[in-house]
User: Which sequence fits this backbone?
């Protein structure tokens, strides 16, 4: 939950997609009639509870937020999403599980990119950074709300693809490869843009660190003003080469003849 309202809005969109698939399976159950009702009620209850919890929290969590989810809230929402997604495959319908994963693709993508990025940089997987998708969008778009609404749009695109895949699997005999291809293209496009943006940010930060190092290693301008060329002339009547000589007293003279007379 890196930005105000990001996770609660994302989970709301995911919950809407999962509810659509759950309602589809309730109307057109798969498997035997007796076993077909095993997870229908549980899926619907969990999906609606997830949507209600997220929508109820969103007005208080949207920018500027007054309350935050924290790690416990974020992990609970993610756990509920994955639980409902796995329950879609009760009859070994792999396509339905993949449909749920496509709906949940944005958090999966951000997590995968973070793991790869930190592994390549030699950092711990739990190390914090500012190269997540929402951080990059905030820097590019200049505001939290623009970044959040952009990610909402990406979430909705994945939701449409996931629900379309489920409908094709349940209601038709059409090939579903087109949906998979569209999801992979969208996933790869966003991932490539994110990797390039993170690389540019790393180059910029490296250049700034190099410039700061050069500035700290450069000689201070105050040191040149006190160098040997700018020191006062040496005084010959003193032992101190940097102290000017004091004026000496006039030497005594012999009295003239008029003075003796």
Assistant:
């Amino acid at each position: 939950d890196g930005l105000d309202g990001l996770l609660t809005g994302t989970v709301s969109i995911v919950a809407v997609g999962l509810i659509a698939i759950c309602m589809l399976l309730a109307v057109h159950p798969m498997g035997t009639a007796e076993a077909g009702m095993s997870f229908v009620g549980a899926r619907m209850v969990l999906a609606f509870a997830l949507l209600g919890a997220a929508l109820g929290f969103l007005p208080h969590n949207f920018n500027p937020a007054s309350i935050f989810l924290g790690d416990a809230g974020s992990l609970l929402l993610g756990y509920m999403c994955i639980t409902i997604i796995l329950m879609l495959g009760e009859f070994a319908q792999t396509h339905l599980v993949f449909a749920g994963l496509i709906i949940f693709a944005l958090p999966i993508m951000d997590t995968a990119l973070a793991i790869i990025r930190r592994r390549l940089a030699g950092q711990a997987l739990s190390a914090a950074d500012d190269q997540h998708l929402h951080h990059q969008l905030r820097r590019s778009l200049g505001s939290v709300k623009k970044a959040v609404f952009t990610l909402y749009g990406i979430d909705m695109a994945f939701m449409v693809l996931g629900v379309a895949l489920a409908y094709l699997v349940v209601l038709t005999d059409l090939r579903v490869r087109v949906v998979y291809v569209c999801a992979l293209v969208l996933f790869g496009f966003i991932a490539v843009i994110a990797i390039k943006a993170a690389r540019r940010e790393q180059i910029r930060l490296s250049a700034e660190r190099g410039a700061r190092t050069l500035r700290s290693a450069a000689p201070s301008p105050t040191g040149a003003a006190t160098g040997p060329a700018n020191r006062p002339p040496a005084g010959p009547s003193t032992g101190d080469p940097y102290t000017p000589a004091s004026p000496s007293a006039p030497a005594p003279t012999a009295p003239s003849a008029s003075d003796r007379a």
The CA atoms of residues 47 and 98 lie 17 Å apart.
